[in-house]
């Protein structure tokens, strides 16, 4: 480069420095926008609780995102336009009027895109909380400086909201969105599988009804009020802490006998009716959250479920409700029953008390059953009666074989997923 070229470049150093500052400010505004919109507010609140003043300042700014966004956009556009204007002047001086503006446009577009947008946003996204705290003090000053412009922008926003307001569907965060956030946190390793399941259970807890978790009357163990003491003791020895007490028929439950009360008075002449407590009767559609409150207020651990005619449907216990939050609770008396046991390739022994949704998911069937909730109930519905052992039917790609049953219900079926199966109607095999 000759002396004239060096002299010309030296004359333009202030313009070059100004352009560099503009690109630096553009990077700052872009990174600040990404940081404040990507930061984890829960994490920031935890820092505030630890006494972090910068986190507190950043959260205060984040409370008014409209002012923050308009400040960032105004600042970014001002510096980008200034940089573009000065670049045009520079390249006209260096290259002339004919080609200078074109080269200036190409160079500034590439520089601003790479160093003013992509790079700072990528860096800020990796540590949004740290950059938000770093940026908080300076951006708060700019928000004050641009306050008049922000006021005009807010008036325009109010006009837009009034005429093109939020849709009816925009009603805040839904349960589904919260569950999705929990799943993302689990997949990213921020919470473990137990924490994820507990949160999901807590969210879904208020949607569960008594009929979803009860023990059916066919599985119910109860005693009659005039049963001999030794027979009652034998039932308690099986691991029960409480037993329903009925008079004449299971549809007429008159109380609940606690094992501790029975052991205390069993050697006396005190009748069973004076040892037992009054039963709590509920309907199948009652939410378990409401039942939990009822059991707590009545200091009871068991409720009797009645149908519309007053007949006994089954029972639900406090343990059943707690298990919906924390998962299965096993004690030394419980017999662990696996709902699905694989016995071959695409072949399973299925307990008829298993959840029908879980069975469909296991075999990749995309259906939403409405009338029944258990596998046993679904099989009975397909036949229209309780089938005999050895009977079978095809359902899409599934072959269902009845392997075990009790006198009045099914207990086990064997389900095989066939590699190539036609959609068929229910058939019976004698």
Automatic annotation (TrEMBL):
Protein's name in the database: HlyC/CorC family transporter
Membrane topology, record value: Multi-pass membrane protein
Domain of life: Bacteria
Residue intervals of the CBS domain: 215-274, 275-332
Family: Belongs to the UPF0053 family.
Keywords: CBS domain, Membrane, Repeat, Transmembrane, Transmembrane helix
Keyword match Magnesium: no
GO annotation, cellular component aspect: plasma membrane
Domain CNNM transmembrane: 8-195
Cross-referenced CDD domains: CBS_pair_CorC_HlyC_assoc
